């Protein structure tokens, strides 16, 4: 049976790394916490070798151990095949952009790592760019910590672009990275469509009022973010400071009740749009079905036209095409859809749904033959009919 956690600081200082390697080789632990032991690249390489056959370790904490690019490269190589490690911390090491690039490449195939801490590693813009590229395909990463890495505006822009398609990252720490107004603006734009990020740290980033305003505007449509840290975004020398009024507005937008209301509003809009599209499609289908078939010409008339046009019709010339277009115009006009009074339409069937919920039989009878279908449409808009049942309701009514 595995021990749930082993703090190797409990062992004599000269035996901690050896004990960790032995435990990983034996597969007797699920967590190894080996902090501030100066194991360097050599120690990281030994642990990586032990991990190649290990299938039990879930947490590996190697923060502040003077691990550089070489050690990070060996750990990345293991992650390409390892399927048990879920949490890896390399905080306060020196892996740099090259080490981050190796880890990013491993994340392209790894499906087990859910939390990665690379804070204080000076990965820079290049490292952030490679990690962003990995996030475009990775579907397991949930928590990514990149604080104090000098990724700048460009690195933040790359990560923001990745968040437009990534659906797994729930917590992202970009604190103290000098992303500025431009980086904040790009992240705000990503938050307008991203639905997975719940916690975002942007403290100590030289974000001014304009950048914070963009983030506040994004929160008006975002329903997932519940924590947004904008602390310490000020500079006495540059004379910028996020106003308390704006911070209060952001806090109000982050409140659970406000997010729940936005989610409900957007769900109603989605259903309304879907209903409108289905009704329009059904109306178009009905117009096509009722259009008269084109009159078939007699064989003798066709021969006479061919002789008059000198074979132009048979060769596909412009004259024949023009004549066909003129003749087809009246038929095309029959497919035009009249404007639908959507507001009245939706109000009618939403009211019908409310009546049906109250148990009144009048909802089904008030609209005659289409009354029952109208009630079901109203129930759909009131979230009492799943979306896959809507088509049946529309077809029944129309």
The total of helices stands at 17
Would you report the number of β strands?
11
Spatial extent as radius of gyration: 32 Å
Low-pLDDT stretches? 8-12, 311-340, 360-371
- Mean model confidence by pLDDT: 79
Please tell me the total number of domains: 2
Give a written overview of the molecule.
The chain folds into two domains: 6-260, Leucine-rich repeat, LRR (right-handed beta-alpha superhelix), CATH 3.80.10.10; 263-287 and 335-398, no CATH class. The strands form two sheets. It has a nine-stranded parallel beta sheet, with no helix packed on it. The protein is built from 17 helices and eleven strands. It is of the alpha/beta class. It has helices at residues 16-26, 40-51, 69-79, 96-107, 124-135, 152-163, 180-191, 209-219, 244-254, 256-290, 299-309, 312-315, 318-333, 342-357, 362-366, 371-381, 390-397; strands at 6-7, 31-33, 59-61, 87-89, 115-117, 143-145, 171-173, 199-201, 227-229, 234-235, 240-241. The protein is globular and about 75 Å long. Helices cover 53% and strands 8% of the residues. Helix 1 packs parallel to helix 2, helix 6 runs parallel beside helix 7 (180-191) and helix 16 runs antiparallel to helix 17 (390-397). Helix 2 links the parallel strand 2 and strand 3. The model is unreliable at 8-12, 311-340 and 360-371 (pLDDT under 50).
Present the secondary structure layout.
Blueprint: E1 6-7, H1 16-26, E2 31-33, H2 40-51, E3 59-61, H3 69-79, E4 87-89, H4 96-107, E5 115-117, H5 124-135, E6 143-145, H6 152-163, E7 171-173, H7 180-191, E8 199-201, H8 209-219, E9 227-229, E10 234-235, E11 240-241, H9 244-254, H10 256-290, H11 299-309, H12 312-315, H13 318-333, H14 342-357, H15 362-366, H16 371-381, H17 390-397
Parallel strand pairs: 1-2, 2-3, 3-4, 4-5, 5-6, 6-7, 7-8, 8-9
Antiparallel strand pairs: 10-11
């Amino acid at each position: 049976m595995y021990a749930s956690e082993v703090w190797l600081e409990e062992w004599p200082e000269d035996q901690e790394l050896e004990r960790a390697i032995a435990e990983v080789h034996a597969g007797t632990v699920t967590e190894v916490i080996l902090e501030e032991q100066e194991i360097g690249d050599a120690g990281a390489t030994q642990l990586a070798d032990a991990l190649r056959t290990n299938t039990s370790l879930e947490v590996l904490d190697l923060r502040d151990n003077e691990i550089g690019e070489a050690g990070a490269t060996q750990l990345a190589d293991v992650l390409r095949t390892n399927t048990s490690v879920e949490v890896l911390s390399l905080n306060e090491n020196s892996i740099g952009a090259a080490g981050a690039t190796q880890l990013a490449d491993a994340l392209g195939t790894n499906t087990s790592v859910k939390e990665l801490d690379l804070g204080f590693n000076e990965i820079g813009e290049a490292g952030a760019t490679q990690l962003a590229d990995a996030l475009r395909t990775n579907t397991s990463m949930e928590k990514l910590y990149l604080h104090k890495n000098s990724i700048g505006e460009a690195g933040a822009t790359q990560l923001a672009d990745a968040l437009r398609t990534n659906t797994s990252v729930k917590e992202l720490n970009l604190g103290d990275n000098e992303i500025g107004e431009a980086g904040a603006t790009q992240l705000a734009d990503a938050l307008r469509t991203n639905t997975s990020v719940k916690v975002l740290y942007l403290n100590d980033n030289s974000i001014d009022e304009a950048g914070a305003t963009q983030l506040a505007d994004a929160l008006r449509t975002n329903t997932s973010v519940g924590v947004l840290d904008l602390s310490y975004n000020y500079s006495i020398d540059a004379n910028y400071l996020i106003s308390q009024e704006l911070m209060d507005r952001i806090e109000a937008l982050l409140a659970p009740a406000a997010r729940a209301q936005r989610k409900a509003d957007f769900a109603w809009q989605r259903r309304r749009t879907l209903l409108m599209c289905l009704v329009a499609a059904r109306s178009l289908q009905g117009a096509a079905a009722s259009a008269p078939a084109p009159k078939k010409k007699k064989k003798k008339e066709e021969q006479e036209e061919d002789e008059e046009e000198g074979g132009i019709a048979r060769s596909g010339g412009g004259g024949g095409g023009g004549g066909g277009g003129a003749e087809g115009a009246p038929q095309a006009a029959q497919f035009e859809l009249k404007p639908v009074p959507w507001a009245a339409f939706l109000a009618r069937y939403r009211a019908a749904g409310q009546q049906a919920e109250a148990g009144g039989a009048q909802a089904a009878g008030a609209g005659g033959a289409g009354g029952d279908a109208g009630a079901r449409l109203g129930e759909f808009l009131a979230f009492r009919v799943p979306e896959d049942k809507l088509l049946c309701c529309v077809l029944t009514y129309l």
